[in-house]
Amino acid sequence: MSDFIVGLTGGIGSGKTTVSALFAARGVSVIDTDEIARQLTAAGGEAMPVIVAEFGPGITDGAGALDRNAMRRLVFSDPGARQRLEALLHPRIARIALQACAAASTPYVILAVPLLVESGGWKEYCDRVLVVDCDEALQVKRVMARSQLAENEVRAILSAQANRAQRQAIADDLIDNNAEPSVLAAAVDALHLRYLDLARQKLAAKTGAKC
Ligand code: ADP
User: Fold this and answer.
1) 114: Cβ below 6 Å to ligand 1?
2) Fewer CB within 10 Å: C terminus or N terminus of the chain?
3) Are strands 5-9 and 29-32 parallel, antiparallel or unpaired?
């Protein structure tokens, strides 16, 4: 059971997925809140009955999954719809994520929360917040290279997210991802040792307190 949570965040295209994979390659459990949200809103997903009850069957695709385009249109025409959807999803995501953290068998876990700054509440579960950061121009270039999005579309997503200064303000640790990917491994190695040590210290403090 793991009792040390490292919240991992960063803007779109900053390198969260790449960094998560490096921690996973070192045997660390990675829990991804986006992945949990996808499972909850897939066909047969746990959140689908309440989402349909709230928004009607028009919000689903033919298979019964959340129709993301329909949801985007709804949010566009009704700003309150996003909050209603989040009110249904967030408590479920948090419950599943925290259960997975507790069940993990590694000394610490990486809890990947893309919107950790924007969706308040996550920080209180984290023993440490790790931010992956790079220049905005690189974010745009990397997202365009991996997707079909045009520059103005990527910039629109960026401007809807927290900015770099807001993320840096809550960071306990920061990975600079402006260089080639090979540089990341050394940064992750150093953080991995640090988190193992901090997790050990937390466990020792807890065990000591019980004696
Ligand atoms: P996020 O999960 O934060 O959106 P990703 O880890 O998916 O970001 O990275 C975005 C894209 O940029 C991916 O295609 C990834 O392979 C690439 N990438 C990540 N880090 C680097 C880097 N240091 N140099 C070049 N490309 C990178």
Assistant:
1) no
2) C
3) unpaired
Same domain, 113 and 142: yes
Q: Return d(Cα 8, Cα 35) in angstroms, integer.
A: 14
Same domain, 23 and 113: yes
**Tokens describing residue 90:** 């967030």
* Full-model pTM: 0.93
User: How far apart are the CA of 148 and the centre of ligand 1, in A?
Assistant: 15
Residue 211 has pLDDT above 60, yes or no: no
Q: Is 138 in the pocket of ligand 1 (CB under 6 A)?
A: no
Tokens of 148: 């079909």
The encoded tokens of residue 89 equal 């999803």
Contact 210 CB / ligand 1 (< 6 Å):
no
Q: Is 49 found in the same domain as 24? A: no
